[in-house]
Description:
Elements: H1 10-23, H2 39-50, H3 57-70, H4 74-84, H5 99-111, E1 138-142, H6 150-158, E2 164-166, H7 167-177, E3 182-185, H8 192-205, E4 219-222, H9 226-239, E5 248-251, H10 257-266, E6 270-273, H11 275-284, E7 295-299, H12 301-306, H13 310-323, E8 328-333, H14 338-347, E9 352-355, H15 369-374, E10 392-398, H16 404-418, E11 423-427, H17 431-445, H18 460-463, E12 466-469, H19 475-487, E13 491-495, E14 510-513, H20 520-527, E15 537-543, H21 550-555, E16 562-563, H22 566-570, E17 583-584, E18 587-588, H23 593-612, H24 616-633, H25 651-656, H26 669-678, H27 689-698
Parallel strand pairs: 3-8, 3-9, 4-6, 4-7, 5-6, 7-8, 10-15, 10-16, 11-13, 11-14, 12-13, 14-15
Antiparallel strand pairs: 1-2, 17-18
Helix pairs in contact: 3-5, 4-23, 7-8, 8-9, 11-13, 16-23, 17-23, 17-24
Bound molecules: adenosine-5'-triphosphate (ATP).
Amino acid sequence: MARTDFSSAKQRRSQREARHRKQSQPGASGSQPQTMGATAEQAQATKRKRQPSSEAAPAKRRNETSSLPAKKTAAKETQRAFKGKAQKVFSRKKTSASASERNQEQKACVKTSSLFKNNPEIPELHRPVVKQVQEKVFSSDAFHELDLHPHLISTINTVLNISNMTSVQKQSIPVLLEGRDALVRSQTGSGKTLAYCIPVVQSLQAMKTKIQRGDGPYALVLVPTRELALQSFDTFQKLLKPFTWIVPGVLMGGEKRKSEKARLRKGINILISTPGRLVDHIKSTKNIHFNRIRWLVLDEADRILDLGFEKTITVILNAINAESQERQNVLLSATLTEGVTRLADISLHNPVSISVPDESLCQFDLEDRDIFEDCDLQTSEELDGFAIPEGLEQYVALVPSKLRLVSLAAFLLQKCQFETDQKVIVFFSSCELVEFHYHLFLQTLLSGSGAPAPGQPPSACTLLRFLRLHGNMDQEERTAVFQEFSRARTGVLFCTDVAARGLDLPQVTWIVQYNAPSSPAEYIHRIGRTARIGCHGSSLLVLAPSEAEYVNSLASHKINVSEIKMEDILSVLTRDDCFKGNQWGSQKSQAVGPQEIRERATVLQTVFEDYVHSSEGTVSWAKRALQSFIRAYATYPRELKHIFHIRLLHLGHVAKSFGLRDAPKNLSVSTVKKRKASVKRPDLRKKTPRRRLAEMLQSEYSSGLEAGVAKVKKLKKPGAPGGQPHSAV
Ligand SMILES: Nc1ncnc2c1ncn2[C@@H]1O[C@H](COP(=O)(O)OP(=O)(O)OP(=O)(O)O)[C@@H](O)[C@H]1O
């Protein structure tokens, strides 16, 4: 991307700001350093903001501008007009106003916004360039070279449409066919699912005594999420086409327990389940037996443990061990952590350890060799390094809190409006944040008509397509969204980490991490939703300037990111006249370059703020989302606390990224702590942050049977403006 030079406007800007400072009272959002801990200053700042000031002015003046025909509906009008084209906001009905009045109004409308004032300086990013571990995805060996049933080979070739093995398949399948246990680690999107599905099917179809449906499970596959369970189930179904007597089945919660029991009674030979749901059945269903189990597969093993399913896994292992001792065990993940070694100790017998990364393929940017040699991280060989797909380009953008929302919107507009076939996943740290951004963008960025106006080029307004996926949605809707996004050629999926693991969503081109992940492993899995199986893809991590050090933390795990400048992201707004704030005949804005970008970003922010402030319900909805952000922010693990600490957040600025004009008065560190304690999470404070995070996240992956789990009902969406707040993450 081309960089934008902001220096030319600097002088004009500082003169203008000096003028405003003179005219205005101090204390608007951002004029004082206002941190989460500073409740008193915060309250005062909020109070001051109610008085006319340069920062509070836009809202007031916006109303003034719209006061001619419809003062009370200014917010609605702004929103509606934006949907059609923003210039209508500053209505042409005001033809009677004099040119100078109009001029003043123009300035008032957009040029005095606080969006670009008092932001922290964006530090120079001296990104350390480190050697990334890379794997060769494909091998030159074909499936027909393996000793597999000919019908299985032809199914792989014709139904799955693949002929050559990937590296991990080449290494794992022969080992598993020999009957050995295995611990398999290989990069995201490298074909680990088939690496275990093929040996399972080969061995079960070859059993001397033909399998009967009523025999019950011969293979048990445990996965952390329901979507992943469906995906594995789908792969088994395809591979089993020639072997119709072997029945696969899935237990994953969200479905009525009664119907799952009925399916278990009929018989499932390859049982795929989430751990929580399986334990529910072990405890309550008589028709579940493990006496014939020959295979136990733990896919995304480290995630299963991260989520605090250790006890659950122990219950399952004990239940299986009580009935059957002779079986093969397989543990797989792209990132194997300490916990997995522990799990491997208790579940694997004399395993073969398969790890694909090929150090000879380590890469680094030659142009940056000097930086690399100077950097302390060259000693990071001892540190953990995760393999990253070769076709994946990783970026980071440092964005001040106030500008986060418009930057995200601009980025998505860029992808959907000016580039073709872009499929984007945006990760957030909680269900509430997903719901908030999904509804906000849906309400403000989408065209009501769905079609471009006659004679107009299609704009983002008509090309955007938003979906969302998180653990508080009911299963039916989750599955529908998963399938819809899988099939879609373009679109934007807002999600939590429920979608970070294992999901194979074809042709995803961009991953955006709007909230930073809580661990490098999570980072790897999130970005691993793109550039799968040898394809290309890109990722963008959005950090606040105070979080810039996170780039070093990633580098210590051999993760390289390049910088994209925020101004470059925002510059897309100049390409769409939707964001022109003042369009009255010949009175066009003279602003060009950086100033124009600022004006347009301000128009966009105004649209968000107007929507959020259009009713009390939407304001409290935005406040709840802000609170959820802060709660999630408080759960970063200890080792990242020096980077992500709520005390480093500027509440007034963060509030802007939720479309709130003022920092909520009743939010402070202590309130957040109190509210955290009031959420039904007993003994939280006694637990480590990691454990706490695990508990919060577990709601994403729950069995679906627990009482009190908030569900998104189709007709009543709690995340929508005015709806009920969600439970935990
Ligand atoms: N040998 C192969 N040739 C071509 N495509 C393949 C091959 N094996 C698997 N695939 C395809 O590659 C994609 C990714 O596979 P899979 O989901 O198993 O990856 P993974 O390693 O489990 O990823 P993650 O770590 O993210 O879970 C799937 O669409 C799958 O159909």
